[in-house]
């Protein structure tokens, strides 16, 4: 349990707070609720949900009622409410109604009663409001409820595709795309870690993004999907150099090489030459919309259709 007034502890509360009312500083509230102090300050500045007291020195002090309101905002966002609406509900409730509203809204299984479209809307709203905790709860709730393949197809990919569209129409900034993808990556990785240590002594599976392509999230989704199927892989990440892929494949003789390309590539591209030049015992799978659409030039490489079929195909190839 954090200490209510660990910093500026000696400073008295300036307003007429009863002595018995425990008051908390912003750092302690942040620690208690698992929200960053900057998010708490943002909610106060933008939506007016925050501490009702200040010390004589101007430091914020939250009472238990203030904390209940902030907790309610967090719980409502986690359930898909737009932050402004969540704040309005929390502000309008009388203190006597807070406990009941909190018990209705605080459910560990975030988004459990929402359908996929509502969760996607919640993720977009949280992303537009720069609320990483809101995105994280919805994504982790979907991963817990639907597994990687269900959450990716029903929630994560549709949200990302919509964010990409909104960005290309100039309706949201690139920072929203970065913020969302960072949160999605960490939730997918947390899900993979929670599955536990996997046996790495089996056939080698390499997953990488094509040289100069920054899009790596599908690799992290594939890593998580394979982990659910009990398979470990080597994730080489974004912008993997073609020459390094060629030499690693020659040395390791992996069973599977999966290469992702979101951005368009051409047939004179070195990465295309490397992947289409690979032969058994290595199976090459190309993922993403970026690869040239020429089946005759692909050699032994095949093109993937979606996450589910890619996991199934790899699982059957490695036995
Ligand atoms: C997140 C994101 C980023 C992040 C990437 C972070 C990361 N760690 O990956 C950041 C911010 C870095 C980024 C950068 C850029 N991005 Co970007 N980005 C995206 C976004 C929103 C999602 C990318 C993604 O993960 N896609 C995967 C899934 C969600 O979508 P999909 O490719 O359509 O996938 C389907 C199929 O391929 C299929 N599938 C088939 N086989 C397989 C196999 C597996 C394993 C999986 C999982 C799926 C699958 O299933 C998918 C649906 O589930 C897309 C939007 C989009 N539609 O993709 C734009 C998008 C790819 N980006 C785009 C652009 C232009 C850029 C930038 C050039 C400019 C920018 N926005 O800053 C730079 C690129 C710089 C570079 N050198 O690479 C464009 C590309 C347009 C084009 N064709 O050229 C897009 C399409 C946005 C848009 N609508 O215009 N981006």
From TrEMBL:
Keywords: DNA-binding
Sequence ranges assigned to domain HTH merR-type in this UniProt record: 23-93
PROSITE patterns registered for this protein in UniProt: HTH_MERR_2 (PS50937)
GO molecular function, one term: metal ion binding
CDD domains in the record: HTH_MlrA-CarA
Keyword Repressor: no
Superkingdom of origin: Bacteria
Protein name in the entry: MerR family transcriptional regulator
Organism: Aeromicrobium fastidiosum
């Amino acid at each position: 349990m954090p200490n209510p007034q660990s910093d500026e502890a000696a400073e008295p509360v300036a307003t007429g707070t009863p002595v018995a009312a425990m008051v908390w500083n912003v750092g302690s509230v942040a620690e208690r609720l698992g929200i960053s102090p900057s998010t708490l300050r943002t909610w106060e500045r933008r939506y007016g949900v925050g501490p009702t007291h200040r010390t004589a020195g101007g430091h914020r002090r939250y009472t238990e009622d203030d904390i209940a309101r902030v907790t309610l905002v967090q719980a409502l966002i986690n359930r898909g409410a737009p932050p402004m609406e969540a704040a309005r509900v929390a502000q309008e409730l009388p203190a006597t109604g807070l406990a009941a509203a909190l018990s209705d809204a605080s459910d560990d299984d975030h988004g459990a009663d929402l359908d996929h479209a509502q969760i996607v809307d919640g993720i977009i709203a949280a992303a537009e409001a720069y609320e990483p905790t809101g995105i994280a709860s919805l994504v982790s709730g979907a991963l817990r409820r639907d597994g990687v393949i269900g959450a990716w197809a029903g929630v994560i990919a549709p949200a990302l595709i919509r964010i990409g569209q909104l960005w290309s129409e100039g309706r949201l900034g690139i920072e929203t795309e970065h913020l969302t993808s960072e949160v999605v990556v960490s939730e997918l990785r947390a899900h993979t870690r929670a599955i536990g240590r996997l046996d790495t002594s089996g056939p080698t599976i390499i997953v990488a993004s094509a040289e100069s392509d920054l899009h790596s999230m599908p690799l992290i989704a594939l890593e998580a999907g394979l982990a659910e199927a009990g398979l470990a892989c080597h994730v080489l990440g974004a912008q993997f150099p073609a020459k390094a892929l060629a030499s690693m494949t020659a040395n390791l003789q992996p069973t599977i090489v999966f290469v992702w390309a979101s951005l368009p590539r051409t047939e004179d591209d070195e990465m295309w030459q490397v992947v289409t030049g690979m032969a058994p015992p290595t199976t090459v799978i190309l993922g993403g919309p970026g690869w040239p659409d020429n089946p005759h030039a692909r050699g032994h490489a095949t093109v993937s259709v979606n996450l589910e079929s890619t996991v199934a195909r790899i699982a059957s190839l490695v036995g």
